[in-house]
Amino acid sequence: MLLRTILRRLAVGVVQLLGLTVAVFFLIRLMPADPVSRFVGINPSKAAYAQAAKAIGVDRPISTQLLHYLGLAPSQGKGLLQGNLGTSWVSNAPVLKDIATALPVTLELITMAFIIALIIAVPIGMLAALRPGGKTDKAVFVYGLFAGSQPEFWWALLFVFVFYFKLGIAPPPLGLINPMNSPPPPRTGFYTIDSLLAGDLTTFFDLLHHLMLPVATLVFILSGPIIKMVRQNMEQALTADFVLYARAAGMPGSTVARYALRAAMAPSMTLIGILYGFMLGGAVLVESVFSLPGIGQYAVRSILAFDYPAIQGVVLVITAISLVVYLLLDLLHAIIDPRLAQE
Amino acid sequence: MSPKLPEETSSMSRKFLTVLASTTLAGLALAAPASAADVLFLAEDVPAGLNYDGPAAAIPTSQTGMVNVMEPLVYYATKEVNSEGVSIPDFGKFEGRLAESWTFDKATLTWTFKLRAGVKGCGGATLTADDVLYTFARAKSVSGAAPIGWFLSNVGSIANFTPAVFGDKEENKKAKVLGDEVTKVDDLTVKIRQAEPNALFLPVLTIFGLMIFDKETMEKHATKEDPWSHNFVNNEGMGSFGAYCIERWTKDNEFALTANPDYYRGKPAIDRVVMKKVPQSSNRVVVLQSGQAQLAQSLTPKEYDSLRKAPGVKVGGHSGNQNLFVHMNFKSKPFDNIKVRQAIAYAIPYDAIIANGYFGQASAWAGVVPSTYPGYSAAAEPYKTDIAKAKALLAEAGFPDGKGLEAFADSFALSYVAEKETTVGPIVNAIQSSLREAGFPVTLNPMPQTQYGDRQLVKKDLPFAINEQEKPIGVDAGYATQLFFVSGDKGGLNNMINYSNPMVDDTWAKARVEPDNAKRDAMLASIQKQLMSDVAWLPVVEYKTQFAWSDKISGIGWHPDNSIRFFDLKGK
After folding, report:
1. Residues A31 and A151 grouped into a single domain
2. How sure is the predictor about A1, in pLDDT bands with cuts at 50, 70 and 90?
3. I want to staple B99 with a disulfide (CB 3.0 to 4.6 A). Which of B113, B120, B265, B561 is the partner?
């Protein structure tokens, strides 16, 4: 039953990806600039223009370009079906390779931030709901006003100024590791995992040290909405009949809270999953402030340069990850609420 | 697996804690360079490619990469070190680099270059005439996405580097093959023949787009599909004879170089230079100020100004070839009206732009060619802010107090590159206020750089714009004239304002092949006089290319590509 659901969801996901790929392919071609112009800054002659257009393949009919991109025109070369996302027009490297370098940086950053944010925010949200008007609830209200009042970009710059420049307890905002040191030998692309695989604890702790401030910034930003979601869902759960019954039956408060939390977590997880998908691209400002070469920065750079293959690749990969996250969430839902699995 | 003994566990914990403590302390020591001879250079990006015939050649940080790992045949001698500690090249004096000496035979228009013996590249290869032949053969193959090597050879009138190379016909294929225009005399002697006399020959050889490849290393990375190793220099490394070798290169992140121990001008003073992408200019400022980086570039004028007073940091620069001008398209009404153009010229707040836009690090520009370039001629009477005169001219143009201009609202949308907002934003606002005061209904129109480039270079349909990104890479007034002001059908490649004047076209056609420099300069001066009276471009200011560096290093040099040569740097 579960396996059938997963397979059905994966099949629908593939169709969604295909639809999105075709839509993005045409949408980016509506952007108001000709990407070839970027190649001919030094020699903008007609011959050089034609040469550049040919080099990146935009001199071909749009249908040929689409079929090539999808991998349905073997004479034109490999495409999506053959696992080729094309070559970036800026870096001239395969888009898949560029993404494989940038994506782990973002995944590392936001996964750590989400884990810490959940550890902090869920109990706080729960406490705030259990004692409305209490100290925690008031503190959450003030914090919510604070964290939500400025964009993450502003907080990130402020944190750099205070914790690095003034107090000197954070490292400079120069990426994942001290730039004068070599990164761990690449195996998975995730620096923390690679440093552990290489048994290089010095680099591992250097990485954690460098991730401290960007992760703290994201935790600061993310905790606000997570606390609010948990608090709201918890409040609703606490008014449910089964809680009233449990209380009437004289169950201890902690047991009642545990029951309510379980009911509150299901809708919260959905929102957290959506937030995770959003942060894949939405962490771009934090990446930019801390010089982290993640997928967000890669996406922005690609859009500004009208780098069609890179834009298509980023959209495809982020969508695919989001679909997988949503699928995992549904499975988690089924574990939290077994009735869903029965349906 | 046997259970761990208490002592063993405790010993492991101790070990873990020791490592944790030591690494935390090491982390607290932060990003201090590994030794005094290392430099951490913070930039807005790192090279996107090192292939001057590739897609990234027009990106300034890619050029910084190329000039530090490659080497030209000839370059400019150093003129002086200015009062800000920045060395300046002498555009009138060439010195040998990979070429030890050279001679020119006027009768056959042939240059003979004697190459240095024993020059070694990072790959271990030794320079020979074959490397020079390979470089020109690769340029002529026009096999890259943006063939700059061919373009510069063509600009320098090297024989047979003609547009016939473009296309797939049989004659095009033949034209792509290097012939007798570049020949090997012996292992260390090369002859290059020009098609006509052209003063731009030596200047183009100094440019990054004709630096010399190491044939041996390049051919090692050639494939059947990519015989000229474009992918190798686009993505992986370099085969050349430059001062530095690539240690590590992660695009969008970092570019680490180590000194080439065999560099023919001596091993560089700085052992390692790590170029790190730090997108936020404010972070480049704070990290430099804290002493953990030694060099930073592409800060805003305001940030440079604030660093001027910071302890341990020096700021310096040179007004070499960067400038800001107003672009008015002759094909967009009412800019075809000379009175309107002149009225705008008198309504620009020149002094306010210098003071508030550039914090005093700019000066009025009295010409349309960088004032440091050979052949530059200043206007006798440059434009000055005079709103009353602007209003009078506008009335003469048929638009008293701006009445009637509302019909041209689209033309008065002042375009500029959105990515330059922090620098250009205050300037365009000052221009908008001043022009509105004079009666022009100016609105602001920021757009992405690629879109701006498309409309400027390809469509040539931007009616009204601020341009602060043009710097002619050929150091010569004639090159700038040909590029920007000669009619499109006469070879004006970047004539973004659709300017056309037979006087300019005809005079340049003669000046281009004039061997007598004095006569050539006189012709170029007459062209520049005409351009100023037509307000072809409206020159506003020339501003300094600035750098900020730690007082623990010295030797910053300005070069026409605005890229720092790490070889020039010295530790203290």
Report:
1. no
2. low
3. B113
Domain ranges of chain B: 43-273+548-571, 323-543
Q: Residue for token digits 């969508």? A: A319
Query: What pLDDT does B489 receive?
Result: 82
Kindly tell me if the per-residue pLDDT of A8 is higher than 90: no
Domain encompassing residue A44: 2-82
* Distance from the Cα of residue B424 to its chain's centroid: 19
> In terms of domains, do A124 and A231 share one?
yes
Do A73 and A101 have their domain in common? no
Residue type (1 letter), B3: P
For the domain spanning B43-273+548-571, the CATH number is 3.40.190.10
Region of poorest pLDDT, from B16-20, B306-310, B429-433, B544-548: B16-20
Q: Are residues A306 and A328 in the same domain?
A: yes
Give the tokens for residue B80.
Answer: 């002086």
In a shared domain, residues A76 and A123: no
Contact residues, chain B, for A164 at CB < 8 Å: 286, 290
Name the 3-class secondary structure at A12: helix
Whether B23 and A39 lie within 8 Å, measured CB to CB = no
Which of the four pLDDT bands, split at 50, 70 and 90, describes residue A333? confident
A107 and A77 both lie in a single domain: no
Please check whether residues A278 and A142 belong to one and the same domain: yes
Tokens of A115: 């884990």
What's B331's DSSP letter? T
Which of A13, A48, A82 represents a domain boundary (last residue)?
A82
Number of structural domains (chain A) is 2
Cβ of A291 within 8 Å of Cβ of B251? The answer is no
Lowest-pLDDT range, B34-48, B116-130, B196-210? Answer: B34-48
Report yes or no for ipTM above 0.90. no
User: Which residue among B56, B248, B277 places its CB closest to the CB of A293?
Assistant: B277
Structure tokens, B43: 């930039």
C-alpha distances (whole Å) from B356 to each of A337, B24, B300, B435 are 63, 44, 12, 17
Q: What residues of A are in contact with residue B23 (Cβ under 8 Å)?
A: 201-202, 204-206, 209
Contacts of A253 (CB under 8 A, 6+ apart): A130
Distance CA A184, CA A196 (A): 9
DSSP at B147: -
Residue A224 lies in a domain: yes
Pairing of the two strands B538-543 and B545-550: unpaired
Q: How far is CA B143 from the centre of its chain?
A: 23
Among A118-132, B13-27, B346-360, the minimum mean pLDDT is found in B13-27
The pTM of the full predicted model, rounded to 2 decimals, is: 0.88
Q: Is residue A87 part of a domain?
A: no
The encoded tokens of residue A43 equal 């020699």
Question: Does A64 lie in the same domain as A134?
Answer: no
In a domain, residue A90? The reply is no
Q: Please check whether residue B222 is in contact with residue B246, taking contact to mean a CB–CB distance below 8 angstroms.
A: no
| Cα–Cα dist B95/B206, whole Å | 10
The answer to whether the beta carbons of residues B262 and B86 sit under 8 Å apart is: no
Closest CB to A47: pick one of B30, B32, B166.
B166
Give all strands of the β-sheet with B38-43 in edge-to-edge order. B244-250, B254-259, B272-277, B38-43, B295-297, B545-550, B313-318
CATH of the domain spanning B323-543, picked from 3.30.70.980, 3.40.50.12780, 3.10.105.10, 3.40.50.720: 3.10.105.10
Contacts A52 to B, Cβ<8 Å? 55, 145-146
CATH number at residue A222: 1.10.3720.10
CB-CB neighbors (< 8 A) of A43 in chain B: 146-148, 151, 493
Closest-CA residue of B relative to A34 is B454
> Smallest Cβ distance to B148: which of A34, A43, A293?
A43
